[in-house]
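User: Last request for today: this protein with pyridoxal-5'-phosphate, please.
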Amino acid sequence: MTTIESNLQGVRQRLERACAAAQRDVRGVTLLAVSKTFGPEDVAEAVAAGQRAFGENYVQEGVEKVLALRGMVSGVALEWHCIGPLQSNKTRLVATHFDWVHSVDRLKIAQRLSEQRPADMGPLQVCLQVNIDGGANKAGVTPDALGELARAVAALPGLRLRGLMSIPEPSDDPAVQRMLFRRVRELFDRLNAEGLAMDTLSMGMSDDLEAAVAEGSTLVRVGRAVFGYRPRKAPPVTSSPAP
Ligand SMILES: *Cc1c(COP(=O)(O)O)cnc(C)c1O
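Assistant: Here's the final one, the structure of the complex with pyridoxal-5'-phosphate:
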């Protein structure tokens, strides 16, 4: 068994245990394997082990992998999720190569993605990134501005609003992790009660997926626990400028 295959097995077991503890059906939680900084061969290895959904942070790198994998695995449909910070000049690449975007936090970006989405690809699946703990330099819409953005995004023809994504500050305390994830879920529930039909809560990573599942996550984004430590240094996931 390859390392990636056994890592994937380990993560699936963690998800099963977390779902059992939360009395949830494990089929209600999608595992997104975050392949940023890893090569196409690593992704192909994960595909061979049954993984189908992959997350990328850096648009250019992601697009290269999307194209490379087309030539490496044939007859297997992969799903590509853009989970990193989005700049206006990269929206076209995202709209034409990805299936999902988790990191929309501004209407202007959403409008560009909607306009640039090729009609024959169907709508781009979108989550709004929420800045749940108020980190000043963090990406994400504030909870106060979320409702207005969500309603505007839901109305864009090239997009389908699927849910919310959040990256709380890391904490070693599971109670703190859960409290922050719970806040995201409460925002999600409130917006749905107001008429938005969202079905995706993208929260939980290698170190806190159990807490996220306990609070209702439907999609965990897992990098290191699947692929191992990243071979080169990646910018922080929060897109905060270097100090
Ligand atoms: C890198 C990254 C992940 C995965 O993080 P790990 O701690 O390696 O599991 C998840 N979400 C986002 C947005 C990321 O940038």
